[in-house]
Automatic annotation (TrEMBL):
Family statement drawn from the similarity comment of this UniProt entry: Belongs to the D-isomer specific 2-hydroxyacid dehydrogenase family.
Pfam family, one: 2-Hacid_dh
ATP-binding is among the record's keywords: no
GO molecular function, one term: NAD binding
Name recorded for this polypeptide: D-isomer specific 2-hydroxyacid dehydrogenase
Lineage per the UniProt record: Bacteria, Pseudomonadati, Pseudomonadota, Betaproteobacteria, Burkholderiales
Domain D-isomer specific 2-hydroxyacid dehydrogenase NAD-binding: 108-281
């Protein structure tokens, strides 16, 4: 059958503008009644393009009976119903590697910000508190500290390499040790949290990683410990995080991701020891352009060869 692309949501202009040169494409959110659109025309589409945030649920996948490939903009695919994808034999691609540097840069930026109190000090100066009460209190040293990594995949390894430049000692927790890496594997996340000064979350969001950073882990990280999450909000028990911060059981947190985006719990917003960002790990012009290019390459490869450049192993 002839190929047709459905865009699940508006895509960045450089990507959306090039798609029509590959094949006919429609934007689901242009339809005034999306359910009616899918009922009437769902059978026309063989390729779905979505984003890591938008994902594709079972209802959408079911509404596309001739779907053969999903090309997603972003490395994480936790918002895509993988059971439905597998059951239907649909191919899936994401955009790995091209975003490693920028996500790692942001992780280190968040870490330094929350530990040294950069954003909090900025607010202090803007409020006019410097001439009134003096500078902010001394913060905590970053260089030479112990860094615990939860997850040591593509992004995690780039973060760890940056941390070497800060003379940090590095250990990591993953399900299985990666013997090719120079860093010590820690089989217990609690033990890792106890050992480290800073815990950076860099593992995928999935049912297996849901709430891995529990109240117990946060307690082990302790009042002088800091949490940074650039991965997925679902990995951290957000209520437990709020409680640990409010009770002073945790030193601070730098967060680019949240459990229920774009909602950020009010106690996190009002806490001076928390830095919050709107899920912008990969959001530089250069990296977003590279991600768009990779989606295009995947779509093109699928349309011409029925294979993908960066397939997700399902
Ligand atoms: O969160 C962003 C991504 O998964 O690429």
């Amino acid at each position: 059958m002839s190929q047709k692309i459905l865009q699940a949501c508006p895509l960045p202009p450089p990507l959306a503008a090039k798609l029509p040169s590959l094949c006919q494409t429609e934007l689901l959110s242009d339809a005034p009644d999306q359910a009616a659109f899918l009922r009437e025309r769902g059978g026309e589409f063989t390729v779905l393009i979505t984003t890591g945030t938008q994902g594709a649920d079972k209802a959408l996948i079911d509404a596309l009976p001739n779907l053969q490939a999903i090309c997603s903009l972003g490395v994480g695919y936790d918002a895509i119903d993988l059971d439905a994808v597998r059951a239907r034999g649909v191919m899936l691609s994401n955009t790995p590697d091209v975003l490693n540097d920028c996500v790692a840069d942001l992780a280190i930026g968040l870490l330094i910000d929350v530990v040294r109190g950069i954003s909090a000090s900025d607010r202090h100066v803007r409020r006019g508190d410097w001439p009134r009460v003096g500078p902010t209190m001394p913060s905590t040293r970053v260089s030479g500290k112990r860094l615990g990594m939860l997850g040591m995949g593509r992004v995690g390894q780039v973060i760890a390499r940056r941390a070497i430049g800060f003379n940090m000692e590095i250990r990591y927790h993953t399900r299985t040790a990666k013997s090719e890496l120079p860093w010590q594997h820690e089989p217990s996340l609690i033990d890792l949290a106890q050992w480290c000064d800073f815990l950076i979350v860099a593992c995928p969001g999935s049912p297996e990683t849901f709430h891995l950073v529990s109240a117990e882990v946060l307690k082990a990280l302790g009042p002088n410990g800091y949490l940074v999450n650039i991965a997925r909000g679902s990995v951290v028990d957000e209520q437990a995080l709020v409680a640990a911060l409010e009770s002073g059981q945790l030193g601070g947190a730098g967060l680019d991701v949240f459990e229920n985006e774009p909602e950020v719990p009010a106690p996190l917003l009002s806490n001076e020891r928390v830095v919050v960002l709107p899920h912008v790990g990969s959001a530089t012009r250069e990296t977003r352009a590279a991600m768009c290019e990779l989606v295009l390459k995947n779509v093109e490869r699928f349309l011409t060869k029925r294979s993908l450049v960066t397939p997700v192993e399902l």
